[in-house]
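help with this:

***
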Amino acid sequence: MPHIPDKMIPHLREGMRKMKNAPEPDPVATERKLMNFAGAVMRSLTRSGTACETVSFAGFEAALLTPASVSCSGVVLYLHGGGYCTGDLDYACLYGGVVAADTEAVTLCAAYRLAPEHPYPAALDDALAAYEWILDHYPGKPICLIGESAGGGLCYALALKLKELKLPLPAGIVALSPWTDLTLSGRSHLENKEADPSLTTEKLAIFARDYCGQEDPASPGVSPLLGDLRGMPESLIFVGGDEILLDDAVRMASALQKAGCAAHLTVAPDMWHAYILYGLEARKEDAEMIRDFLRSKLS
């Protein structure tokens, strides 16, 4: 994966801050345009040498990415971020292609249905359908989950659902700046309000309202931090030190550990939401940790 040099970090932060402070009469529509454009532009740059097959489900599509070199017998399920309201298949393939190439593993990128048109439990139902597809098509093979932001929270919501249904759990979970508490109760919403260059609690409140619909935001299906985490697989969790969602990651790692689960937390000083996706030279060791973790679980 190409890395962005350290000298670009101030420019990235400034660009994000300008977008954060720009007037947004319809945050969901604006975010969808930005994410879909990014996915369309970057998809061709990140999938070189990777074969892509579209897999159709009832109500959504996924992309099965197979890198030029496959060294892992298991499969990755990637669940994209976007506040449960944004992100299409092109966007999902953006980081999904990076995961497939770096890990040398087949990766299924699920473009689950989005709120507000499809509130909870649509995203969770679609994630479950994608996971069951992998179980059917790769029987007996290990599966790992990876996701950023809402997708990171969805990984844990999916694992809780799998436990409830007594289905095989994933071999591991990688959560990048996971949104695990849709009640927005973390102290970092206040403590990092000014430091966070990209997110606002006000925008997240809109996304949470649209996704939850009639569901209680404290339900473990939307806020897995508040669920029974006993028996969850080993996790790697990454979060930027400047994020308003810092506490979502910190409290999730702590809750997993208290539940007797292995959870490894990395807090990157001065970093922003989902910084991993930017391929920063300054944080390339985090990408290497993710690669090594997934390879170890999928081999």
User: Anything to note?
Assistant: The two ends are 21 Å apart (CA to CA). The first strand starts at residue 51 and ends at 56. Residues 6-298 form a domain with the Rossmann fold fold (CATH 3.40.50.1820).
